Amino acid sequence: MTMTANPQRPVAHAMLKPAHVSDEEWALRCDLAACYHLIDYMGWTETIFNHISARLPGPAHHYLVNPFGLLYTEVTPANLLKVDLEGNKLEPSNFDANPAGFALHSAIHGARADIHCVIHTHTTQVSAIAQKKDGFSHNDFYGAQLFGRVGYHSFEGITLFADEKARMLESLGNHHILVLRNHGIAVGEHSIAATFFLLWTVQRAAEIQCLADSMRGEDTRIPDPIRQKCADLTAMLNREDGFADKFFEGMVRKMRAERGTPW
Protein backbone atom coordinates (compact mmCIF):
# COMPACT_ATOMS: atom_id res chain seq x y z
CA MET A 1 0.00 0.00 0.00
CA THR A 2 1.29 3.48 -0.83
CA MET A 3 0.55 6.33 1.52
CA THR A 4 -1.28 9.26 0.00
CA ALA A 5 -2.48 12.46 1.58
CA ASN A 6 -6.20 13.06 1.95
CA PRO A 7 -7.25 14.78 -1.30
CA GLN A 8 -10.07 16.58 0.54
CA ARG A 9 -7.72 18.26 3.00
CA PRO A 10 -6.76 21.90 2.26
CA VAL A 11 -3.10 22.23 1.34
CA ALA A 12 -0.60 25.07 1.31
CA HIS A 13 -0.92 27.74 -1.35
CA ALA A 14 0.09 26.49 -4.80
CA MET A 15 2.50 29.43 -5.24
CA LEU A 16 4.80 27.74 -2.70
CA LYS A 17 4.95 24.46 -4.62
CA PRO A 18 8.17 23.93 -6.60
CA ALA A 19 7.50 23.11 -10.22
CA HIS A 20 9.28 19.74 -10.06
CA VAL A 21 7.16 18.45 -7.15
CA SER A 22 4.06 16.44 -8.02
CA ASP A 23 0.68 17.33 -6.56
CA GLU A 24 0.68 14.02 -4.65
CA GLU A 25 4.08 14.68 -3.09
CA TRP A 26 3.12 18.28 -2.28
CA ALA A 27 -0.03 17.17 -0.46
CA LEU A 28 2.09 14.72 1.55
CA ARG A 29 4.60 17.46 2.35
CA CYS A 30 1.79 19.70 3.56
CA ASP A 31 0.41 16.99 5.86
CA LEU A 32 3.87 16.20 7.24
CA ALA A 33 4.68 19.88 7.89
CA ALA A 34 1.31 20.25 9.63
CA CYS A 35 2.19 17.23 11.78
CA TYR A 36 5.46 18.85 12.84
CA HIS A 37 3.57 21.98 13.86
CA LEU A 38 0.99 19.87 15.71
CA ILE A 39 3.70 18.09 17.71
CA ASP A 40 5.00 21.50 18.77
CA TYR A 41 1.47 22.73 19.49
CA MET A 42 0.91 19.74 21.77
CA GLY A 43 4.16 20.40 23.63
CA TRP A 44 5.80 17.15 22.56
CA THR A 45 8.93 18.57 20.94
CA GLU A 46 12.54 18.21 22.07
CA THR A 47 13.76 21.58 20.68
CA ILE A 48 15.50 20.81 17.34
CA PHE A 49 15.77 17.07 18.03
CA ASN A 50 13.62 14.02 17.21
CA HIS A 51 12.00 13.26 13.89
CA ILE A 52 8.83 12.63 11.97
CA SER A 53 9.29 10.90 8.63
CA ALA A 54 6.90 10.04 5.82
CA ARG A 55 7.58 7.60 3.03
CA LEU A 56 7.08 8.91 -0.49
CA PRO A 57 5.01 6.98 -3.05
CA GLY A 58 6.94 4.53 -5.19
CA PRO A 59 9.22 1.51 -4.80
CA ALA A 60 12.43 3.41 -3.94
CA HIS A 61 11.83 3.76 -0.16
CA HIS A 62 12.57 7.48 -0.29
CA TYR A 63 11.17 9.51 2.57
CA LEU A 64 10.73 13.05 3.87
CA VAL A 65 12.26 14.25 7.13
CA ASN A 66 12.94 17.52 8.93
CA PRO A 67 16.04 19.63 8.22
CA PHE A 68 18.35 19.37 11.23
CA GLY A 69 18.67 22.62 13.16
CA LEU A 70 15.15 23.90 12.55
CA LEU A 71 12.53 24.08 15.25
CA TYR A 72 9.36 22.18 14.42
CA THR A 73 7.56 25.51 13.97
CA GLU A 74 10.09 26.38 11.24
CA VAL A 75 9.36 23.29 9.16
CA THR A 76 7.45 23.99 5.94
CA PRO A 77 6.31 21.77 3.07
CA ALA A 78 9.08 23.19 0.89
CA ASN A 79 12.05 22.80 3.25
CA LEU A 80 11.46 19.15 4.18
CA LEU A 81 14.37 16.98 3.05
CA LYS A 82 13.96 14.10 0.62
CA VAL A 83 16.40 11.31 1.53
CA ASP A 84 17.11 7.67 0.76
CA LEU A 85 17.50 4.85 3.27
CA GLU A 86 21.15 5.76 3.82
CA GLY A 87 20.22 9.36 4.65
CA ASN A 88 21.61 10.79 1.42
CA LYS A 89 19.85 13.95 0.26
CA LEU A 90 18.15 13.42 -3.08
CA GLU A 91 17.59 17.12 -3.78
CA PRO A 92 19.72 20.20 -3.03
CA SER A 93 19.16 21.83 0.36
CA ASN A 94 21.10 24.19 2.59
CA PHE A 95 20.24 21.85 5.46
CA ASP A 96 21.34 18.36 6.43
CA ALA A 97 19.39 15.69 8.26
CA ASN A 98 20.25 14.55 11.77
CA PRO A 99 22.11 11.21 11.49
CA ALA A 100 20.46 10.05 14.71
CA GLY A 101 17.24 9.69 12.73
CA PHE A 102 18.55 7.35 10.06
CA ALA A 103 19.15 4.27 12.16
CA LEU A 104 15.57 4.24 13.48
CA HIS A 105 13.53 5.75 10.65
CA SER A 106 15.35 4.20 7.72
CA ALA A 107 15.25 0.79 9.38
CA ILE A 108 11.47 0.91 9.73
CA HIS A 109 10.82 2.44 6.29
CA GLY A 110 13.08 -0.13 4.67
CA ALA A 111 11.54 -3.16 6.36
CA ARG A 112 7.87 -2.46 7.06
CA ALA A 113 5.72 -2.01 3.96
CA ASP A 114 2.70 -1.29 6.18
CA ILE A 115 4.35 1.67 7.94
CA HIS A 116 4.56 4.88 5.91
CA CYS A 117 4.98 7.41 8.72
CA VAL A 118 7.16 7.21 11.84
CA ILE A 119 7.08 9.65 14.76
CA HIS A 120 9.75 9.59 17.46
CA THR A 121 9.33 11.52 20.71
CA HIS A 122 10.58 11.45 24.25
CA THR A 123 8.19 13.52 26.29
CA THR A 124 8.64 13.49 30.05
CA GLN A 125 5.79 11.02 30.62
CA VAL A 126 6.76 8.67 27.79
CA SER A 127 10.41 8.69 28.87
CA ALA A 128 9.35 7.90 32.44
CA ILE A 129 7.37 4.88 31.26
CA ALA A 130 10.28 3.83 29.03
CA GLN A 131 12.54 3.83 32.10
CA LYS A 132 10.30 1.44 34.04
CA LYS A 133 10.97 -2.28 33.71
CA ASP A 134 7.31 -3.17 33.25
CA GLY A 135 6.61 -0.44 30.67
CA PHE A 136 2.95 0.33 29.99
CA SER A 137 0.48 -1.07 32.52
CA HIS A 138 -2.64 -1.20 30.27
CA ASN A 139 -4.87 -0.43 33.27
CA ASP A 140 -6.42 2.82 32.04
CA PHE A 141 -8.67 3.63 29.10
CA TYR A 142 -5.79 4.55 26.78
CA GLY A 143 -3.29 2.05 28.10
CA ALA A 144 -5.77 -0.78 27.47
CA GLN A 145 -5.84 0.26 23.80
CA LEU A 146 -2.10 -0.49 23.58
CA PHE A 147 -2.37 -4.04 24.91
CA GLY A 148 -0.36 -6.46 22.78
CA ARG A 149 0.68 -3.65 20.43
CA VAL A 150 3.99 -2.60 22.01
CA GLY A 151 7.53 -3.82 21.39
CA TYR A 152 10.41 -3.00 23.75
CA HIS A 153 14.01 -2.34 22.71
CA SER A 154 16.89 -2.27 25.21
CA PHE A 155 18.91 0.92 25.42
CA GLU A 156 22.16 0.84 23.45
CA GLY A 157 23.09 4.52 23.74
CA ILE A 158 22.33 7.31 21.27
CA THR A 159 20.77 5.76 18.18
CA LEU A 160 23.44 6.44 15.56
CA PHE A 161 24.82 3.17 14.32
CA ALA A 162 23.60 0.95 11.50
CA ASP A 163 24.33 -2.27 13.36
CA GLU A 164 21.47 -1.52 15.76
CA LYS A 165 18.87 -1.51 12.96
CA ALA A 166 18.33 -5.27 12.91
CA ARG A 167 17.94 -5.42 16.67
CA MET A 168 15.42 -2.55 16.68
CA LEU A 169 13.39 -4.27 13.97
CA GLU A 170 13.45 -7.52 15.93
CA SER A 171 12.20 -5.64 19.01
CA LEU A 172 9.46 -3.97 16.97
CA GLY A 173 8.32 -7.26 15.43
CA ASN A 174 4.90 -6.83 13.84
CA HIS A 175 3.91 -4.06 16.28
CA HIS A 176 3.34 -0.39 15.52
CA ILE A 177 4.70 0.95 18.82
CA LEU A 178 8.32 0.60 19.89
CA VAL A 179 9.36 1.64 23.38
CA LEU A 180 13.04 2.55 23.33
CA ARG A 181 13.90 1.68 26.92
CA ASN A 182 15.48 4.48 28.97
CA HIS A 183 14.90 6.77 25.99
CA GLY A 184 11.51 7.36 24.36
CA ILE A 185 9.12 5.94 21.82
CA ALA A 186 8.57 5.48 18.11
CA VAL A 187 5.17 4.87 16.54
CA GLY A 188 4.38 4.08 12.93
CA GLU A 189 1.25 3.60 10.88
CA HIS A 190 -0.02 3.59 7.29
CA SER A 191 -0.60 7.35 7.14
CA ILE A 192 0.46 10.55 8.85
CA ALA A 193 -2.98 11.01 10.38
CA ALA A 194 -3.10 7.44 11.72
CA THR A 195 0.40 7.77 13.18
CA PHE A 196 -0.48 11.02 14.91
CA PHE A 197 -3.60 9.46 16.40
CA LEU A 198 -1.60 6.48 17.65
CA LEU A 199 0.98 8.79 19.22
CA TRP A 200 -1.78 10.77 20.93
CA THR A 201 -3.15 7.53 22.41
CA VAL A 202 0.33 6.52 23.65
CA GLN A 203 0.94 9.95 25.15
CA ARG A 204 -2.41 9.95 26.99
CA ALA A 205 -1.69 6.47 28.35
CA ALA A 206 1.70 7.63 29.63
CA GLU A 207 0.27 10.75 31.26
CA ILE A 208 -2.45 8.84 33.09
CA GLN A 209 -0.13 6.04 34.19
CA CYS A 210 2.41 8.52 35.59
CA LEU A 211 -0.29 10.26 37.61
CA ALA A 212 -1.87 7.00 38.80
CA ASP A 213 1.52 5.67 39.92
CA SER A 214 2.05 8.80 42.02
CA MET A 215 -1.17 8.22 43.98
CA ARG A 216 -1.77 6.01 46.98
CA GLY A 217 -3.92 2.93 46.62
CA GLU A 218 -4.04 -0.15 44.45
CA ASP A 219 -4.95 0.06 40.78
CA THR A 220 -8.06 -1.66 39.46
CA ARG A 221 -6.64 -4.11 36.95
CA ILE A 222 -8.37 -4.45 33.59
CA PRO A 223 -8.72 -8.15 32.63
CA ASP A 224 -6.73 -9.25 29.58
CA PRO A 225 -9.83 -10.07 27.46
CA ILE A 226 -11.14 -6.52 27.96
CA ARG A 227 -7.71 -5.07 27.20
CA GLN A 228 -7.56 -7.11 23.99
CA LYS A 229 -11.03 -5.99 23.01
CA CYS A 230 -10.03 -2.34 23.46
CA ALA A 231 -6.78 -2.80 21.53
CA ASP A 232 -8.46 -4.61 18.64
CA LEU A 233 -11.19 -2.00 18.33
CA THR A 234 -8.77 0.94 18.37
CA ALA A 235 -6.48 -0.74 15.83
CA MET A 236 -9.47 -1.32 13.57
CA LEU A 237 -10.58 2.31 13.83
CA ASN A 238 -7.06 3.51 13.09
CA ARG A 239 -6.91 1.37 9.96
CA GLU A 240 -9.95 3.20 8.63
CA ASP A 241 -8.58 6.39 7.07
CA GLY A 242 -11.72 8.39 7.74
CA PHE A 243 -11.43 7.98 11.53
CA ALA A 244 -7.80 9.08 11.83
CA ASP A 245 -8.23 11.81 9.21
CA LYS A 246 -11.13 13.37 11.11
CA PHE A 247 -9.03 13.45 14.27
CA PHE A 248 -5.97 14.88 12.52
CA GLU A 249 -7.97 17.49 10.59
CA GLY A 250 -9.77 18.59 13.75
CA MET A 251 -6.48 19.07 15.57
CA VAL A 252 -5.02 21.03 12.63
CA ARG A 253 -8.09 23.29 12.61
CA LYS A 254 -7.76 23.85 16.35
CA MET A 255 -4.06 24.67 16.05
CA ARG A 256 -4.57 27.07 13.15
CA ALA A 257 -7.48 28.80 14.87
CA GLU A 258 -5.17 29.62 17.78
CA ARG A 259 -1.88 30.16 15.92
CA GLY A 260 -2.90 31.15 12.42
CA THR A 261 -1.82 29.38 9.24
CA PRO A 262 1.94 28.76 9.40
CA TRP A 263 2.39 28.81 5.59
Automatic annotation (TrEMBL):
Gene3D superfamilies attached to this UniProt entry: Class II aldolase/adducin N-terminal domain
Class II aldolase/adducin N-terminal domain ranges (all copies): 30-210
Lineage top rank: taxon: Bacteria
Pfam families, A to Z: Aldolase_II
Family: Belongs to the aldolase class II family.
NCBIfam families attached to this UniProt entry: PRK07044.1
Protein name: Ribulose-5-phosphate 4-epimerase/fuculose-1-phosphate aldolase
Organism (species): Xanthobacter agilis
